[in-house]
Specification:
Blueprint lengths: L2 E6 L3 H14 L3 E7 L2 H11 L3 E4 L8 H9 L6 E6 L4 H10 L3 E4 L4 H12 L4 E2 L4 H8 L11 H4 L3 H11 L4 H8 L3 H15 L4 H10 L4
Parallel strand pairs: 1-2, 1-3, 3-4, 4-5, 5-6
């Protein structure tokens, strides 16, 4: 039987291209649906129950980590493979922490993408060559490596981490709102939530806290 795939990317032209490529070169993969945003993706995945979700990392309304957060507890049998233009270590680690089974960049060939989809559906972990090192560094038990689990950090939602990361980099609330496509009021709400969860008092303490956990 073919692997049933759901595409999530905010660029309709890219989704159309991936669908056409996958469906033209193999019968191993069947594209059963697609979505351009978090809400649409969550609803579509819940409806189609695909084997594998090809997931974009950055989207205006929350990104791949938010899709993972909402789906993983509801439909744990769905496997996620990140497909992104970004090869930044931060993006790779964040989406793997959120539950993705692999991460490949959009420079991947159609044939290699098919192989990656099939492999993650069979339980393998798949990464573009240079990205595997990021994951090993992040989860390895050695000095300087990020811990596999940080109970305090795990209290934060993916969006709260996004806000905290930009806050620690010195962004003003208005700049954070613009960067994440949310309102200033929403930024303030997220900052208040982070302060409450971390039991810290101000943005300067938050910046140090984020730096200590290599979020910046």
């Amino acid at each position: 039987m073919s692997v049933r795939v759901f595409l999530v990317d905010d660029h309709a032209l890219f989704r159309a291209g991936v669908r056409a490529e996958l469906e033209s070169i193999t019968e191993e993969v069947e594209v059963v649906g697609e979505a351009g945003g978090v809400g649409e993706a969550v609803a579509g995945i819940a409806h189609h129950r695909p084997d594998v979700v090809l997931l974009d990392v950055h989207m205006p309304d929350g990104g791949g980590a938010e899709v993972l957060r909402q789906i993983r507890t509801k439909i744990p049998e769905v496997t996620f493979l990140a497909l992104s233009v970004s090869d930044a270590a931060e993006d790779v680690i964040n989406v793997i922490r959120a539950g993705a089974r692999g991460y490949v960049t959009k420079t991947i060939s159609s044939q290699e993408l098919v192989k990656a989809v099939v492999r993650v559906s069979e339980g393998d972990a798949v990464f573009s060559p240079r990205l595997a090192g990021f994951v090993l560094d992040a989860f390895a038990d050695r000095p300087g490596a990020a811990p596999i689990s940080d109970p305090e950090l795990d209290l934060l939602t993916p969006r709260e981490r996004d806000v905290l990361r930009l806050l620690a980099r010195g962004y003003a609330y208005k700049e954070i709102a613009s960067e994440l496509f949310i309102s200033v009021k929403t930024v303030e709400t997220h900052v208040s939530s982070v302060l409450r969860k971390t039991q810290l008092s101000n943005r300067y303490e938050l910046s140090r806290w984020a730096t200590d956990r290599r979020l910046v």
